[in-house]
Design goal:
The protein is of the alpha/beta class. The chain is built from 29 helices and 21 strands. The chain binds a DNA duplex through helix 4, helix 5 and helix 9.
DNA sequence: TGTGAGTTGATTTTT
DNA sequence: TCAACTCACA
């Protein structure tokens, strides 16, 4: 019994042992929050609480998975319901679908599906006010849904033009979703919340069923999520939430900071536990973070402290340009790795917007420093994957109009735009689904004989495939690929891109196979579709691979790294230009920097450039005012704008800048000769690529001899592997287990989806493989 | 049905 | 700057 508690601190133990009644765990960064949650679940199970009565909700699949694993270690064999909000709602909604006008087999539209439906709705309305993009309208609808405003109840604010448009579009969009028996992401929460609100009897039953509820990252809940959680814990208020108001960075997506700030009002007898001891960062990093966040008003003050070492001072560096900023960081990383002090995986580089990653990528690639970017093109968003999955979606839910539209002429089967429009009109007239209209193509007005035949063939194809839906998913998928002609269509193509698509489809087949293995038995198509809709594959970011990590500040939440660089800490970037309108938004930007800073375990460097290219324009930069809020007197301040080497130039620039009053250098140090690895030093000590099996001298590159912009701009295929297995390069010789020796002619894709096209010496010709799966061995790099 | 010039509009994005 | 989208044309 006590072994569970033995490893915990006093505060952690208090949280774990508090089982009955509401509990608010205010968990600072690095305070062992996940540990508390998992131990608390294990503790409850040890107390004899039935696993079915425990529900733990997270925001991300990653968090849910991690907790599942850790709970399984602490309490083997006990199944508690631990999932994301969306998954939980989806499962429950399938049981009570008819209450909200759906059928149990409803489809889940991802962002691009719902966007395409929205565009149709907008087009159908022939709006006069064309001022707003579909994205803006989608934002308006999403905001309404997150605020629990249904289509019927939406009232635009007077004098709010976007609101007026949303008021028009939202009802039609929602009607079409229902007609297609589909929901968007927001609907999963909205339907669930309304279901609970409008069915007291059902609410009471579910409240009783989930007697113990835990919510992670409570500061990120929106009104819909709040309502769901609240609805399930009125009679049984054993609700434990964890969160940190200081790490709320999704306000722009509807997260409501008041949910956590006012928790004590909702549950007056709440027990509040503060986890203030940080086990992650050094004292100097934590002080910087604490002082920064102290400037926020909307928060619950915490006294963050750590017993960790003082550590080296936080570095604040000014660079001449974004180019030199990137180069200096790369050189520093290279030097550390060369010296054997660090591995590439120890480093992370954070930025406010994705556009900022480009320069960094170029430089890292040029220096052959292995890196990986989190959030590349998502696998399930690729055209070929969406196409094939749409077939499955139609089979599972024939009313799914977006999916039908996607596959009806993919691959091309001579069903043109006009034919489709006629079918849509007919379906609207008869109030039937698009597929039902297609079934009667012979009698649809305006459809020629030839088109009617093509449509009939398509319907026959779907009907034939429909008979297979109880088979294992891989098998269904296989039949879809062969009988639809999709596979042949790609095979026949000469385009290299299409060969890569084939490889991706292979990948999908193997994902289906793995799913079938996990879910033996028949008829799991719907669950497979749900998984592909709700699980995004950026989860495959591997900590195991030895690479520098690049990501946005948002993406960094929940992670930690020994050394962190945060770039472009500049006015207009961080805080972002668009966040300056309201104090709340500005505070959120400050929290974003706080989150970034607190990811660092041992070393932290913030930097900015004096000039930055932005949308093709070069402009002077004003350092972020957040920098002035840091404890600068205890930090290392470096100026890398040229310093002692070009005194005149610096003087010129300085006078030029102070003239327009934009440059009060917050980091100025009187002498530039503080010991630090200079660029030259780094360039000379760094002589070979970090992760190359050979010692080819051709890859030697340093800051001193950076290649031209044109070369840097070369497509990834001609440079080093961006984020794949670095032993594979264009021109390299490989051996394939089956086809023998070949030469790599192209590389594409990234991460675990990285593909190589290989020309074989044997009769095998040219083939494309997913590197992660292919039995390929590098013999000699290019 | 696919290509190519021209236009436009550019945060963050757990699901 | 650049990529995504539209619209006209073959």
């Amino acid at each position: 019994m006590s072994d569970l508690l033995a490893s915990l601190t006093d505060a952690q133990r208090q949280a774990v042992e508090h089982v009955e009644g509401p509990l608010l765990i205010l968990a600072g960064p690095g305070s062992g929050k996940t540990r508390v949650i998992t131990h608390r679940i294990a503790w409850m199970l040890r107390q004899g609480i039935r696993p079915e009565s425990i529900l733990a909700l997270t925001f991300t699949n990653k968090a849910a998975e991690e907790m599942k694993t850790r709970v399984a270690d602490l309490a083997p064999g006990q199944q508690v319901w631990l999932s994301t909000f969306h998954r939980f709602c989806s499962r429950l909604l399938r049981q009570y679908a008819e209450h909200v006008g759906l059928e149990a087999n409803f489809a889940i539209y991802d962002t691009s599906d719902s966007r395409s439906l929205l565009k149709q709705a907008i087009a159908a309305l022939k709006l006069e006010d064309g001022r707003f993009t579909s994205d803006q309208i989608a934002g308006g609808i999403s905001w309404a849904k997150n605020s629990l405003i249904s289509a019927e109840n939406y009232k635009p604010r007077p004098g709010h033009p976007l609101g007026a448009v949303v008021a028009h579009v939202y009802p039609l969009y929602q009607a079409r979703l229902l007609k297609a028996n589909a929901v968007d992401f927001d609907d999963l929460l909205l339907h669930m919340a309304l279901l609970l609100r409008e069915n007291p009897e059902l609410r009471g039953r579910l409240d009783l069923r989930y007697r113990y509820i835990m919510v992670d990252e409570y500061q990120d809940t929106n009104l819909a999520q709040y309502t769901i959680v609240r609805g399930l814990s009125i009679d049984q208020p054993n609700l434990a939430v964890t969160g940190d108001p200081d790490q709320s960075i999704y306000g722009w997506r509807g997260a409501n900071l008041s949910n956590i700030l006012d928790f004590e009002k909702d549950y007056p007898h709440v027990r509040v536990v503060r986890l203030e001891q940080n086990y992650r960062s050094t004292k100097s990093i934590l002080r910087a973070a604490a002082q920064l966040i102290g400037n926020n008003v909307r928060r619950k003050a915490k006294g963050l402290f750590t017993d960790n070492a003082e550590g080296s001072p936080v570095r604040l560096v000014r660079h001449a340009s974004q180019q030199t900023e990137a180069e200096a960081i790369a050189a520093r990383i290279a030097a550390e790795v060369r010296a054997g002090r660090r591995r590439p995986r120890d480093f992370a580089i954070f930025y406010r917007t994705n556009a900022l990653s480009r320069v960094i990528e170029y430089v890292l690639r040029d220096m052959a420093i292995p890196y990986q970017m989190v959030n590349g093109v998502e696998f399930y968003q690729r055209k070929e994957i969406k196409d094939v999955l749409s077939y499955l979606a139609v089979l599972n839910n024939p009313r799914n109009e977006v999916a039908v539209l996607r596959v009806i002429n993919t691959p091309a089967r001579a069903i043109g735009k006009t034919t489709i429009e006629r079918l849509q009109e007919f379906a609207a007239d008869r109030k039937c689904s698009l597929l039902d209209a297609a079934r009667q193509s012979g009698v649809v007005p305006g459809i020629s004989g030839r088109a009617a035949v093509a449509v009939a063939k398509f319907v026959a194809l779907i009907d034939r495939l429909m008979l297979l839906t109880v088979r294992p998913v891989e098998e269904v998928l296989f039949h879809v690929l062969t009988e639809s002609g999709y596979e042949d269509f790609l095979r026949a193509s000469q385009a290299e891109e299409d060969q890569e698509r084939l490889a991706n489809i292979q990948e999908l087949l193997s994902a289906a196979r793995q799913f079938d293995e996990r879910n033996p038995g028949v008829g799991h198509l719907e669950e497979f579709l749900e998984e592909t809709a709700l699980v995004n594959d950026t989860d495959d970011w591997e900590t195991s691979s030895d690479r520098v990590t690049l990501m946005t500040l948002h993406a960094s939440k929940g992670l930690e790294f020994p050394v962190v660089f945060i770039v472009a800490v500049e006015e207009g970037v961080l805080p972002h230009e668009r966040s300056k309108e309201s104090p709340d938004q500005l505070e959120e930007e400050r929290r974003l920097l706080f989150v970034g800073i607190t990811r660092a375990r041992e070393e932290l460097q913030l930097s900015y450039a004096r000039q930055r290219e932005f949308r093709g324009r070069r402009g002077w930069v004003v350092p972020s005012h957040f920098l002035f809020e840091l404890p600068r007197e205890e930090m290392t301040l470096e100026d890398e704008c040229g310093g002692a080497h070009q005194p005149t130039e610096v003087a010129d620039e300085a006078s030029q800048i102070s003239a327009d009053g934009t440059d009060e250098f917050p980091v100025w140090s009187d002498s530039g000769d503080r010991p630090r690895p200079s660029d030259e030093e780094a360039a000379t000590t760094f002589e070979a690529p970090l992760q190359s099996p050979d010692n080819s001298p051709a890859t030697v590159t340093g800051v001193a001899n950076l290649t031209t912009a044109a070369e840097l701009a070369m497509p990834t295929s001609s440079a080093f592997a961006v984020s794949g297995r670095d032993e594979f390069r264009v021109g390299g010789i490989v051996r394939h287990a089956e086809f023998g020796l070949g030469k790599i002619v192209a590389l594409s894709g990234g991460g675990s989806r990285r593909c190589a096209t290989v020309a074989f010496a044997s009769h095998a010709g040219q083939r494309t493989f997913v590197l992660a799966n292919a039995p390929l061995q590098a013999i000699r790099s290019g």
